[in-house]
């Protein structure tokens, strides 16, 4: 084996190792912009939604906010104090979920603000996205007029996001330590490869 061949093999091993290391250290997180069709008119949106109500945001909980790796699709929990209901809600408080980022069609709620909510049910949870007619209550006059007089919730409840908060406290995987382990293993493999190539070269 000539020197040129040996050097080329060493370069290939080094390049592959560096590429693998870069993938571990900088994980690829592809995000795509949310694309929405024109929402249905209020009455049609009412029929297609699992729940339609107006209310004020009284708490927002991001269960993954302490994780080192986050996704734009991570669920955010929003606790509402319900004012009026047109469908699917008869309690004074309700929890809905949305994605963390608008890139995944998440709706950006603000604490203590009032909204008109169009939600759909998914695995027993009410979810809201940016493609629905959900909007700040102050800008939903057209919808309110079309929907008519809503019903005041009759069941008094006090919901606590205790379970969701508990998930926040769950220790996340120490990604940094794992990367260091992978890096050490790669360096070991690289060292072994170089030693083997040098021994073959001596032969």
Task: Explain this structure.
This protein is 36% helix and 23% strand. With 203 residues, the chain is α+β, with helices and mostly antiparallel strands. Residues 25-31 and 165-177 have low confidence and may be disordered. It has helices at residues 3-25, 42-48, 141-147, 162-169, 175-202, and strands at residues 51-62, 75-87, 93-99, 114-122, 125-127, 135-136.
What attributes characterize this protein structure?
single chain; 203 residues; alpha+beta; five-stranded mixed β-barrel; 5 helices; 36% helix; elongated
The main pleated sheet reads as: 5 strands, mixed, barrel
Fraction of residues in β-strands: 15-25%
How would you describe the shape? Answer: elongated
What is the CA–CA distance across the termini? 9 Å
**How many distinct helices?**
5
Approximate helicity band: 25-40%
Strand order of the largest sheet: 1-2-3-5-4
Low-confidence stretches: 25-31, 165-177
- Strand and helix order: HHEEEEEEHHH
Mean residue pLDDT: 80
Question: Which radius of gyration do the C-alpha atoms yield?
Answer: 27 Å
Number of strands: 6
SS-based structural class? alpha+beta
